[in-house]
C-alpha cells in the first residue's frame, strides 16, 4: 500500500498472475513524494527503507550530479546555437528523474535510453566527446554499449522498449541476476512499440523496468490529449504493476527505481514507473515551445525545480556549505569546459566513414556502395581517404 502526502493509505488492486501482493505498487492518482517542493523531507515507511543508505554525503553527491548535468545541457545548447552542434535535445527540468533512476542501477544492469538521456549517459560513464559527437554529426553512434552497459540513443520513438524487453528475455534465459531499464517519454506510450514491448514483457515476466519520464509534452502535443487516464494506469491492462512518482523528487525516483529493479532481479517481472516531471526547455533546439506552451505553466513548474528542491533540503540540514558549493561549481565548470573543447577539437569524419560499422562483418552490398561513392568523389579530382574499417 502506498501512502499519500497526508499519510493516508492508498490501496491498490490485487496483483495479476506472477505479481507478489507485497509489492508497494500504486493505483490511483497519488504521487510518491519523499521531498516536497519546499525541501521538506516527507516520511513514507514503505519507501524510506529503500533510501535509508542515502546519507548526507550521498545527498550532496546527488546535488552535484544534477547540477553538473544541467550545466552539460546548458553548454550543449550554447554549442548548438553557436553552430558547433547540429541539434541538441535539452533535459532541463528532468535532472531528478535521470539522476535518481540512473544512480539506482548496478554496473551489470543494462540501459536502453531515448535521445534525451544525456544525464544517464554521463552517470554510466560515457565520455563527454561520445555524448557530443552524434549531435555534431560526426558519427552515427556515441559510445561502445558493452563498455558501459548503455545502448546507443534511439531517435525512433519508443523502439528502445522492444530492444530492452528482448535483452531482458535473453538475460532471463541466461539465468543472470541482471535488470534492464528502458527510458522513454510520455509520447512514446502512444506508440505501438511500447505497447508491444509490454505485451512480451508481461507474457514472459521479463526483468525489465519501463521508466516513463512524463514531461507533459510530446513535442507540441500535451499529455492530456495523448491519454485521458494517467499514464501509470495504462500498463495495468497488460498485467504490469506501476508506480507514479514525483519526477522532480530525486529521492522518490531513487526509491521507486530501486523497488522496481529489485523486483526484476528476484523474478517478479516487469514494472512501469511514471515519473511526473516537466520539460522546461524546447523539445529540441529546433523547437520553439512559446508557440504552444502557456508561460504561466512554465512558471508553475519552475517553482518545483528539482535542483532547487534538493538545494532547499540541503540548506535545511546545514549541508550546503561554502566548500560544497565551491566544489560543485568547480566540477560543473570543468565538465562544461571539457565538453566544449572536446566538441570543437573533434576531428571531422572522412566521407567514406559513413559505410563503417553498418554491419559487424564484411557485406558485399555495402562494399559495392562504398566503391561507387568513392569513385564518384574521386571524379572531382579530390582523392578520398578511407576511414578505418
From TrEMBL:
UniProt GO molecular function: branched-chain 2-oxo acid dehydrogenase activity
Stored CDD domains: TPP_E1_PDC_ADC_BCADC (cd02000)
UniProt entry tagged with the keyword Oxidoreductase: yes
Cofactors demanded by this protein: thiamine diphosphate
Annotated region (Disordered), positions in chain: 1-31
E.C. number: 1.2.4.4
Top-level lineage group: Bacteria
Matching InterPro entries: Alpha-ketoacid_DH_E1_comp, DH_E1, PdhA/BkdA, THDP-binding
Alphabetically ordered keywords of this record: Oxidoreductase, Thiamine pyrophosphate
Annotated ranges, domain Dehydrogenase E1 component: 65-335
Pfam assignment, any one: E1_dh
NCBIfam families: PDH_E1_alph_x
Name of the protein this chain belongs to: 2-oxoisovalerate dehydrogenase E1 component alpha subunit
Protein's organism: Arthrobacter bambusae
Amino acid at each position: 500500500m502506498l501512502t499519500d502526502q497526508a499519510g493516508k493509505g492508498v490501496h491498490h488492486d490485487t496483483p495479476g498472475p506472477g505479481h507478489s501482493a507485497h509489492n508497494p505498487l500504486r493505483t490511483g492518482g497519488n504521487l510518491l513524494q519523499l521531498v516536497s517542493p519546499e525541501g521538506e523531507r516527507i516520511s513514507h515507511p514503505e519507501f524510506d527503507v529503500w533510501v535509508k543508505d542515502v546519507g548526507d554525503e550521498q545527498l550532496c553527491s546527488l546535488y552535484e550530479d544534477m547540477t553538473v548535468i544541467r550545466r552539460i545541457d546548458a553548454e550543449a545548447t550554447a554549442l548548438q546555437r553557436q553552430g558547433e552542434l547540429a541539434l541538441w535535445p535539452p533535459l532541463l527540468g528532468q535532472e531528478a528523474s535521470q539522476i535518481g533512476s540512473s544512480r539506482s542501477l548496478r554496473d551489470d544492469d543494462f540501459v536502453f535510453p531515448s535521445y534525451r538521456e544525456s544525464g544517464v549517459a554521463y552517470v554510466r560513464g560515457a565520455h563527454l566527446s561520445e555524448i557530443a559527437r552524434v549531435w555534431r554529426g560526426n558519427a552515427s553512434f556515441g559510445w561502445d554499449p558493452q563498455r558501459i552497459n548503455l545502448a546507443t540513443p534511439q531517435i525512433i520513438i519508443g523502439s528502445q522498449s522492444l530492444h530492452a524487453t528482448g535483452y531482458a528475455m535473453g538475460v532471463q534465459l541466461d539465468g543472470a541476476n541482471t535488470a534492464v531499464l528502458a527510458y522513454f517519454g510520455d509520447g512514446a506510450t502512444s506508440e505501438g512499440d511500447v505497447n508491444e514491448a509490454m505485451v512480451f514483457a508481461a507474457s514472459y515476466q521479463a526483468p525489465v523496468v519501463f521508466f516513463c519520464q512524463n514531461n507533459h509534452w510530446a513535442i507540441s502535443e500535451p499529455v492530456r490529449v495523448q491519454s485521458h487516464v494517467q499514464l501509470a494506469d495504462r500498463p495495468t491492462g497488460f498485467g504490469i504493476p506501476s508506480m507514479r512518482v514525483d519526477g522532480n523528487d530525486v529521492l522518490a525516483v531513487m526509491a521507486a527505481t530501486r523497488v522496481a529493479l529489485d523486483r526484476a532481479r528476484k523474478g517478479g517481472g516487469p514494472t512501469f514507473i511514471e515519473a511526473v516531471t516537466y520539460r522546461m526547455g524546447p523539445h529540441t533546439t529546433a523547437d520553439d515551445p512559446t508557440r504552444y506552451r502557456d508561460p504561466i505553466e512554465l512558471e508553475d513548474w519552475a517553482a518545483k525545480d528539482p535542483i532547487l528542491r534538493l538545494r532547499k533540503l540541503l540548506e535545511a540540514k546545514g549541508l550546503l556549505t561554502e566548500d560544497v558549493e565551491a566544489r560543485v561549481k568547480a566540477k560543473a565548470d570543468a565538465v562544461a569546459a571539457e565538453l566544449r573543447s572536446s566538441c570543437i577539437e573533434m576531428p571531422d569524419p572522412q566521407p567514406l566513414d559513413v559505410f563503417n560499422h553498418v554491419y559487424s562483418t564484411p557485406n558485399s552490398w555495402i562494399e559495392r556502395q562504398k566503391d561507387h561513392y568513392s569513385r564518384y568523389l574521386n571524379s572531382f579530382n579530390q582523392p578520398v581517404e578511407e576511414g578505418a574499417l
